[in-house]
Request: fold
Amino acid sequence: MNKDQYILGIETSCDETAASVIKNGTEIVSNVVASQIESQKRFGGVVPEIASRHHVEQITIVIDEALEQANLLPGDLDAVAVTEGPGLVGALLVGINAAKAFAFAHQLPLIGVHHIAGHVYANQLVQEMEFPLLALIVSGGHTELVLMKEHGSFEVIGETRDDAAGEAYDKVARVLNLPYPGGPEIDRLASESETAIEFPRAWLEADSYDFSFSGLKSAVINYKHNLDQKGESVNPAHVAAGFQESVVDVLTVKTKRAAEQFKVKQVIAAGGVAANKQLRASLTETFSALNIPFYVPPISLCTDNAAMIAAAGTSMYNHGVRSTLAMNGRPGMELTSWNK
Ligand code: KG4
Ligand code: ZN
Reply:
């Protein structure tokens, strides 16, 4: 009988310090996330220097906790997987150095994982992947449509040309004086509103799978300025609902068109914005009408976590991918395939 495989994942690319142990690539044994959101709220966004300090304070506690909850010793692990990029360099370096020290001390293989590959593999913890697969990745830093023909193979068929979807949520929330992070706030306000202001949709060229959200953000800002100048007040719920309708409409239509063109067997959504209730409902409805299986992980696995890094790391480990102790944080890291 084959021995069970245990991989430790570590994630510190933005404002969550996270560690997790995954069994055989699909089963969560422990999943610890220390969020800095409460602290970063004061600044209305993530301050990189403060993020790094929090990671330094939390990282060893979080790793110890993940092993303790898993009831495992370092020697029981097969490898250590850590987010190598993209992200805030000072934040990435904390996780990477902790992973290197841990791997060196316990003589374990080290694997550097792309953060977006992690978001995609969050689904592997919920549902076995079937290929060809289309992944819509929508987070604070990314908006991408990725085609996967097999495990570890990624083809980016569309991406944002300016702001990421989550970034647009956070910026519009700021305009509406809502707290950080803006996504959940806009989600909640929009679901309570019966009226939605009409905002534009950026479809770009007819055959393009790229996205653009900066025009929508400007439209919201202009709308508010116009009302401010007339001395009228803005109804944040109406704006939130209109903004969200525009985002969800574009994301749904482009994902649907790509799924049909590439005749995929499965569609998955990933990243923090995939926690959005209206987006989940819209994609579920669209793909159930097309009879294409659609999956999205539970909200705790949509936002940043280390279980997804360990899940992607397991696939990489099984494909023979190894990093060296020379690994560095790569803020602009490209998503490349490990199964070529
Ligand atoms: O994946 P994530 O946790 O971190 C990054 O890798 O960026 O995504 C964070 C982003 C933030 O912009 C946040 O506002 C957004 O995800 N977000 C949401 C929701 N929950 C989080 N956006 C829309 N609706 C939500 N419910
Ligand atoms: Zn993320």
